[in-house]
Amino acid sequence: MNSQKIITIIAGVIGVIAMFFLIRIIGVGDEAIKAGESSGMVNTFMYIAYAVLALILVLVVLFTLKNVFTNAATLKSTLMGVGAFLVVALISYFMASGIETPMKDGEVLSASGSKLVGAGLNMFYILAVIAIGSMLFSGIKKMIK
């Protein structure tokens, strides 16, 4: 049995279990859940969902890292992408100005918090321009051919 069949079987089993839990929650009804009569059941299902989510995230990260480290071309491509992202993040951070800013609720946003917010906005703008530029470039390149 290859790994693809095993993963398909595991996904099917998780899907059947999820359908069972969904039917149990729907069977209880909205009113009982709102009234708190079955909050124990819902909380239990939430913890199960969190555990399944954590398991899936761990498996995704492990298999992704395994794939990246077993293929040299993939590793090089991944490191170039991560490096480019870090360069954009550093440029965005150093372009941002950090000034204390009063907020609507009377609190004051610290200079470092303001700098991080500005860096996030700058990074969004830079990445948006890069994405739009690459779409335009590929579209124009296809039109020329």
TrEMBL record:
TM helices/strands, residue ranges: 7-27, 47-65, 77-96, 116-137
Keywords: Membrane, Transmembrane, Transmembrane helix
Domain of life per record: Bacteria
Protein name: Uncharacterized protein
Species per Swiss-Prot/TrEMBL record: Oceanihabitans sediminis
